[in-house]
């Protein structure tokens, strides 16, 4: 970190008093940043970025100053993260749908070139579309894969990228930034006190940050590879089950043999016949009781005739 010049701050007369906790000393009118605190803050920011990358989130890198442009573009592209290095489009976060329309327009022009529609246009129209495509590519080409708002913002030089920081704060997007001794660390969620003017210092911090993001992406890839065999194993038994057609009920299986079924059908008429005989036997005594009753009534009438 000493070789990279991370510890060099700005001139003492341009300092921001809110950066006092991160300043170690002053030498030759220049503030010296406390590297012990810088290391702690780098580790903290790296852990946050690693977790975001592991969960599949996107981190937007913002650096439009001359020293940081090429470094940030190279490092961010290596980990497949979006970045802005030309100019911060006003309202890129707060007016994100409009920015997406411009990106879709660029994709539409690309499709026209691929399917041959572009060649059928007049020469003047082709020139206008080509210039428009080059302008869109310059300003928005690095964020064409950003389909939704980023989960975090990494900023180099807070003073120069104040618009980006304000938009992120309005949308409650966490901001991770390299903060020099002349900057205000208040709107920054994860402060990395470091020299944001030297190319070597920026490259050192970017290596640490992108290394953490790469680790998170590798862990995410391993987790997906582990889940794939488990899902295929669960799907294999399920595919063996037969599905019944619509409107048909599954046939109920029974263990009764054809011989037993025939025996049961033969026994049914016999049972009905025995039940009919039982009903007839119960009805016979009732008829006998009815025939006996008139005979008993005739006996007293005969005795009365004899007495007369």
How is this structure best described in words?
The protein has 308 residues and is an alpha/beta fold. The protein has three domains: 8-90 and 149-222, Rossmann fold (3-Layer(aba) Sandwich); 94-148, Helix hairpin bin (Helix Hairpins), CATH 1.10.287.610; 264-297. Helices cover 56% and strands 11% of the residues. The chain has seven helices and eight strands. It has helices spanning 35-54, 66-78, 96-115, 123-140, 162-170, 199-240, 258-307, and strands spanning 8-11, 23-27, 30-33, 59-62, 83-84, 152-156, 175-179, 190-193. Strands 5-4-6-7-8 form a five-stranded parallel β-sheet, with helices on both faces. The protein has a three-stranded antiparallel β-sheet with strand order 1-3-2, with no helix packed on it. Strand 6, helix 5 and strand 7 (175-179) form a beta-alpha-beta unit. Helix 1 runs parallel beside helix 6. The N and C termini lie far apart (155 Å).
């Amino acid at each position: 970190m000493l070789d990279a010049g991370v510890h060099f701050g700005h001139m003492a007369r341009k300092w921001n008093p809110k950066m006092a906790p991160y300043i170690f000393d002053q030498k030759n009118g220049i503030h010296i940043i406390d590297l012990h605190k810088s290391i702690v803050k780098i580790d903290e920011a790296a852990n946050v970025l690693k977790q975001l990358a592991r969960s599949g989130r996107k981190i937007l890198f913002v650096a439009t100053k001359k020293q940081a442009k090429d470094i940030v573009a190279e490092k961010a592209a290596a980990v497949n993260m979006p970045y802005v290095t030309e100019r911060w489009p006003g309202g890129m976060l707060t007016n994100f749908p409009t920015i997406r329309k411009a990106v879709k327009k660029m994709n539409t022009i690309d499709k026209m070139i691929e399917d041959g529609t572009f060649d059928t246009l007049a020469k003047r129209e082709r020139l206008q579309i080509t210039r428009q495509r080059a302008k869109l590519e310059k300003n928005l080409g690095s964020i064409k894969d950003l389909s939704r708002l980023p989960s975090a913002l990494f900023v180099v030089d807070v003073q120069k990228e104040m618009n980006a920081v304000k938009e992120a704060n309005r949308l409650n997007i966490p901001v991770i930034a390299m903060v020099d001794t002349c900057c205000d660390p208040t709107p920054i969620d994860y402060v990395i006190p470091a020299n944001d003017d030297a190319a070597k210092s920026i490259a050192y911090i970017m290596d640490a940050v992108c290394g953490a993001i790469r680790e998170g992406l590798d862990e995410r890839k391993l987790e997906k590879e582990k889940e794939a065999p488990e899902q295929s194993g669960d799907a294999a038994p399920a595919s063996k089950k037969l599905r019944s057609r619509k409107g048909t009920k599954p046939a109920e299986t029974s263990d009764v043999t054809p011989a037993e079924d025939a025996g049961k059908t033969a026994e049914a008429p016999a049972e009905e016949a025995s039940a009919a005989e039982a009903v007839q036997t119960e009805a016979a005594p009732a008829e006998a009781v009815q025939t006996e009753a008139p005979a008993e009534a005739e006996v007293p009438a005969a005795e009365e005739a004899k007495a007369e």
